Amino acid sequence: MTGSEEFDTTPPAAPSGAAAVFGDRMPSATRFVEILADTGVTHGLIGPREVPRLWERHVLNCAVIEDAFPQGATLIDVGSGAGLPGVALAIARPDLDIHLVEPMQRRTDWLTATVGDLELGNVTVHRGRAEEFIGVLSAPWVTARAVARSAKLARWCVPLLDGRGTVVAMKGRSAREELDADRRDLTRLGLVDATITEHGATVLDEPTLTLDLTFQPRPPASQSKKKKR
Question: Is the pLDDT of residue 67 over 70?
Fold first, then answer.
């Protein structure tokens, strides 16, 4: 590729399955794709090669995990980046209370502008690393996409869980192998259940996979000793 090579950044048309996921929120979903194809590219959040597949690989791919969360749930999207999956979920599920956590200033500025453009009253943007919000921000659900391997991701996410809670991590086809390799470390963090779930099989050629990790936080060592006495 040469420095002068140009890419077509025309927003792609919505696939037929998008309406089944977004319903009457389709105008907002379409607008989100337009923003990603425009300032999402110029701000370096989305590669120009990704524009033709923004729906299938990014927006719809993320939105289909909405079935992982109960009505009215509060969730934290760690490393939100281009608002994936957080903004896509907020459009598909206006009942959700979503907190986007992102450490980079230029990304949080873009997220704030995007949330404002889309008039998403159910989204709050937070700038900082996940570990900076321990004791400040908590929820029964945490999600992330392409942030880190399961064990490393859990070390960041588990302290954000409000009591027993679940980390819904978007993963590829190697989810099973990753779970098997990381299970010991996950167990040390309080893992009590792990499930690999397919989402969007009826609207995507390749369903989205999530690794759903439920944790029961362990009591501090001092409390454990008191209980034994």
Answer: yes
Q: Looking at the domain assignment, is residue 12 inside a domain?
A: no
- Report yes or no on whether pTM surpasses 0.85: yes
> What is the DSSP secondary structure assignment for residue 46, as one 8-state letter?
S
Say if 7 falls within a structural domain. Answer: no
Instruction: Compute the distance between CA of residue 142 and CA of residue 158 in angstroms, rounded to an integer.
Output: 8
**Contact between residue 37 and residue 10 where contact means Cβ atoms under 8 Å apart:** yes
Q: How far is CA 177 from CA 150, 166, 173, 180, 211, in A?
A: 11, 20, 9, 5, 11
Query: Are 215 and 153 spatial neighbours (Cβ–Cβ below 8 Å)?
Result: no
Which residue shows structure tokens 């779930």?
197
Burial (CB count within 10 angstroms: exposed 0-12, middle 13-18, buried 19+), residue 36: buried
Which tokens sit at 184?
Answer: 């010991």
Q: Can you give the residue range of the structural domain that contains 148? A: 18-228
